Amino acid sequence: MLLLKNAILKKSPLDIVVSNSGIQKDAPIDQMTVEQWDRVLGVNLRGQFLCAKEAIKIFKKQGVRPEISCAAGKIICMSSVHDIIPWAGHVNYAASKGGVLMFMKSVSQEVAPHRIRVNGISPGAIRTPINHEAWSTSEAYTDLMRLIPYKRIGEPEEIGRTAVWLASDNSDYINGTTIYVDGGMTLYPGFESGG
Length: 195
Prior knowledge:
globular; alpha/beta; Rossmann fold
């Protein structure tokens, strides 16, 4: 958001926006406070809206600059496998990420005629602080591996490489798509032996 704000204030060119903000405030649904709900939806979903809105204004004004890219601009919405995998005890988080998925698709449909590309990345279990408890001990890691057919946790660099590719002209015909970087979590491994 800081780089976007600087581009707006300085009226400098902007080519790529990666909306990568997310928090969790977990609670069972009957114990979740309105504040927990609003905070997660505010950061995880409203933040995507605010970034995209301002970026699109700039992208439309700039238009396509062939010396930079064949697109007028690119937006990458960071989501989660929980945009399609339900998550009991985390309904605010899952609802926010499901919202990001449909937000990304709807915005992509709207701005594609302006040669603005909007796509999403939905990470699975990645070795980051937000899920430290899920991988920090051997017992937790072993338990986590039940959910990942590829049998390893993802690394932040793998998300970064995906974002770089989506931001490049090598992916120019990719629009309104989510790439799941998840080691197969979205394959619902609980059903691997017939359910």
